[in-house]
Amino acid sequence: MRAVTIVLALLAAFVFATGVVLQQHVAWQEPQEHAAKPRLLWRLARRPLWLLGMGADVIAFGLQAVALHRGSLVVVQPLLTTSLLFTLFLTSITTQRPIVLRQWAAVALVLTGLGVFLADAAPTTPSGAGTAGSAAWLLCTGAVLAVTAMAVSAGLRHTGTARAALFGVAAGMADAFMATLAKAFSDSFDHGVGRVFATWTPYAVVGAGLISLTLISTAYQAGHPTVSLPVITVVDPVVSCLIGLTLYGERLTLGGLRAPLLPLALVAMGIGLVMLGRDDRVAAEVAREHHGAAVRPA
Hints:
By secondary structure, the protein is an all-alpha fold. It has one domain. The protein has 13 helices and 2 strands. The chain has a two-stranded antiparallel ribbon with strand order 1-2. α1 crosses α10 (201-221). Residues 289-298 have low confidence and may be disordered.
């Protein structure tokens, strides 16, 4: 079953990367005054390429939900960070530019760190995981909202790289919480398809999804993708794993050499992700920053 979860998560990462290549450069072209506002999504929804990328995102979300239903946040969310690797390879193919040594080094770090983590951590999910009580959900939601709101508030007061980094934090938090809701949504199917819409999960997914989409689009639209992209890519799995360990009661089996190897694997993976996120070619494909081009007027 774990092998199926890994395949589904990797497939979701590939489809997410395809959506990025199709979609995200449109967001960067939008005026700054629409940042973190519903109007930003309304403007983007009128762009065919953005809509095509959204279709890929919906398919990827479905694959992610199935993977989360079969496995844990601690396994699935780190695997989804490989979407950055797929973005690199898709960019290399579409631009017909070879992958350079620095990029190969980043790929090696991510894959090595991820491989050691999956082999070493042996995550387990006890019975009843995914069915946290109301108090636990309120506490988790309140903590995520508080951090996200502070990041957005600070981001709106800043410009340049600080703005990109702060909105990157907010977008990463939103992505992580969406994964949490996706797991709860997928678990609700255990009670029958007909009863799913009698629960709160589908409506929470839609509402949180719109907020997440606005924040992610705003992070890319803020410019400086070599700042916002690595922040989003690192914050998402870290927060997801923390939520999985606390809200859902997931556990990591550590013993012997596993304890010291696990942090080393995570550090290697994090360094590789930051290297990729700060790579101009990858970042340009994710946020499509047109150097020297004027931002379109409202």
